[in-house]
Amino acid sequence: MSRIPRDKSWDSTRALLSEGYAFIPERCRRYQSDLFETRLMLTKAVCMSGPEAAREFYEPGRFTRRQALPKTALWLLQDQGSVQTLDGEAHDHRKQMFMSLMSPRAIRQLADLMARHWQARIPKWGGMSEVVLHSEVQEILCRAVCEWAGVPLTEDEASRRTQEFAAMVDGAGKVGPRNWRGMALRRRSERWARSIIEGIRSGTVKIPEKAPAHVIALHRNQDGAHLDVKVAAVELINVLRPTVAVARFIVLGALAMHEHPTFASRLRTGDDEDIELFIQEIRRFYPFFPLVAGRVLQDFDWKGYRFEKGAWVLLDIYGTNRDPRTWNEPERFDPDRFRSWDGSAFNFIPQGGGDHYAGHRCAGEWITIELMKQALRLLAREMRYDVPEQDLRIDLAYMPALPESAFRIANVRAAS
Ligand code: HEM
After folding, report:
1. What does the radius of gyration of the chain's CA atoms come to, in whole angstroms?
2. Is the pLDDT of residue 202 over 70?
3. Total structural domains within the chain
């Protein structure tokens, strides 16, 4: 077996935290290799990048997500017993439940709900001297997804739940206080979600049978039993929390409109294809999930390297989306590049790669795309606003990323 490049330092955890998104792609470039070995949190890890690496990583049955993330991140993003921690038939059975919520009609309903909540806020924004777009959109999405899922939400609860979901996303890539805050708020969310699952099962919470919270509460495992209440609550949160996180992509979309006025004007006057190209480029260009992690289930060889059962492997999302072998001038923001994209499930992986049903690729990818389209339509066609002087830089060490100012807008009015 040939050797692969090995990172020089004894342990690279500090480098990963300080370099953030650039950690894997920088080293792959430096070593001129699609993979290298390193140590993170005192454990040997193989990092890999690029479309071929993604193809290997998403080969069905090759990797498990169990014990692949530090507990602190896992707990904020997925938690024990969730679909992501399952493999084989158990995974496919649970994933089918998630995907059954993703019909085009259901997704349209969610996007319409978001638009309704958004439009209702425009007059209020008009009376504010400045609006922090990220926090406003998080709350809009929280209200919309709870209504869509059939989860009752009082007026008081809306901002509390928004804060909880936001803190989980914000704390996932951190160590220390931000992570602890996310964990504390997660506990509160879980208690709330468990009470909803119990209420649906006992009949005290009455919601339509097709509503996602109902589907999750009454879903049966392969053995015919309902999910454990705790697991059902985790899966309900796994629909609500990441939908609120779509606010990050929407804010990055607003930033892209601000920084690329020529493309932005096409959104105002063009057709839906222009919006689609634009949002794909946002998902490719801007940082969100830096990587996905897995543990090898069965030995295999790739590029002359033996991946042994149990080995810890990190696949680079950010760098794969900017790999120059697929993307011409990857550092340039250019929605038109998607006109000639080949549609591969491995060279553009902002929400994972491979198959949505048979693998771990994000269950909410279609929701994300539809919500982004709707939000950009609203920003471009239904409102006008100014973007005051502010710090719009994105720190690549801060995961998940956001412009420093969280994108402030002023002088908001409805488009005439
Ligand atoms: C905000 C933008 C989002 C990003 C960047 C994102 C990204 C990801 C990534 C990278 C994975 C892991 C893929 C892997 O392990 O190979 C994932 C999995 C998952 N995502 Fe998302 N996601 C987003 C939104 C959503 C939404 C809106 C939902 C639900 C409505 C959702 C639900 C899930 C679930 C349930 C999984 C686990 C799938 C499985 O293990 O089979 N995500 N997502």
Report:
1. 21
2. yes
3. 1
The two structure tokens encoding residue 222: 């392969």
What number does the ligand 1 atom closest to the CA of 248 have? 1
In a domain, 326, yes or no: yes
Residue 403 β-bridge partners: 394
Residue 222 forms part of a structural domain? yes
Whether 5 is in a domain gets the answer: no
Q: What is the pLDDT of residues 326-348, one digit of tens each?
A: 999 999 999 999 999 999 999 99
Give the whole-angstrom CA distance, residue 92 versus residue 130.
46
Q: Quote the ligand 1 centre to 292 CA distance (angstroms).
A: 10
Give long-range contacts, CB 8 A cutoff, 24+ apart: 300-309.
300/56, 300/59, 300/62, 301/1, 302/35, 302/56, 303/2, 303/4, 303/34, 303/35, 304/1, 304/2, 305/1, 305/2, 305/4, 305/35, 305/46, 306/1, 307/46
Which residues, judged by CB distance below 6 Å to any ligand atom, belong to the binding site of ligand 1? 65, 83-84, 95, 98, 238-239, 242-243, 245-246, 249, 288-289, 292, 350-352, 360-364, 367-368
Q: Could you list the residue range(s) of the whole structural domain that residue 349 is in?
A: 13-414
For ligand 1, the distance from its centroid to the CA atom of residue 269, given in whole angstroms, is: 32
Report the atom number in ligand 1 closest to the C-alpha of 359: 41
User: Look-up: residue for tokens 């890539």?
Assistant: 173
**Residue 242: alpha-carbon gap to chain centroid:** 6
Ligand 1 pocket test: pick from 77, 96, 351, 374 the residue with the most ligand atoms within 8 Å of its Cβ: 351
Q: What single-letter amino acid sits at 269?
A: T
- Give me the residues paired with residue 47 across strands: 36, 314
The whole-number pLDDT of residue 292 equals 95
Q: 396 C-alpha to center of ligand 1: Å?
A: 21
Predicted confidence (pLDDT) at residue 174 exceeds the cutoff of 70? no
Ligand 1 atom nearest the C-alpha of 102 is 30
